[in-house]
Fold each of these.
Amino acid sequence: MSVRDLPTLNAVLNAASALLLLCGYLMIRSGRREAHRRFMLGALVTSTVFLASYLTYHFQVGSVRYQGQGPLRTLYLTILLTHTVLAVVIVPLVLVTVARAWKGDFPAHRRIARITLPLWAYVSVTGVVIYWMLYRL
């Protein structure tokens, strides 16, 4: 695998994280706590591997400029801005959410997870959208 393959890997990891988050959500809604825990830990691992791969790629390549013009450029920049801001916000939210579950403080875990889950899912899904717009359009 070369550095040129990392954007595709990153998109796959983001998609996998989004899918694992959805499965984790569905499991907790159906009362399957152990399955929920496994899916959420899987999402945490895939997101962590994504972050390492993303940083590796950008340390070696630098930033990649979007080449599109017009309304698509505006759409891309809007998605990129919201994605970037929430990607920074989501790291401490995930860490606090996981720490509360780890400690067994499930009422506090539930309260913050209601905020963390949709933001984390948004960051994962928009990561895939950004990949498609940047490398596939």
Note: The two ends are 23 Å apart (CA to CA).
Amino acid sequence: MSDREFLRAFSALVAALGVFTAVLFLLAGFVVDKTSPQQQPDIRAIAERIRPIGEVAIGQVPSGGGISIISTANAAADDKGKGVFDRACVACHGSGVAGAPKLGDKAAWKGRIAQAPDTLYKHAIGGYQGKSGFMPPKGGNTSISDADVKAAVDYMVSKAK
């Protein structure tokens, strides 16, 4: 087959594919129902489906009710220990992560409370590793002042007595 014959055969193939594509477009135009208008999405229905189930408010109650989580660090300025606990300590002492005694668990706190308060402060500020778990220094948040850590310890101890 010469180059000229190849070019004719190739050109005929490309032309046939072009005609075939045009026929498919025409056929698709007849198949689609042109009498029905395009349906626009209902924006209000979509907004309702993706609406959040609650709101998070820091220091204020959301208008209209609903579920809210209010930071007590700002709301209860007079209770520094509770504010520090809610902000920094609740992650472990709220659920008992890494052997942390849960807030209000009198049995878990009994042996710890029997120690001198200075020992609890030392472990909370400097960190501690014991048989039952691990306490990182200042609960892993070194930006908390020693006085605030002590206030949080006093708060937790008061809830376990």
Note: Helices lie at 3-31, 43-49, 72-75, 80-93, 106-114, 117-126, 146-160.
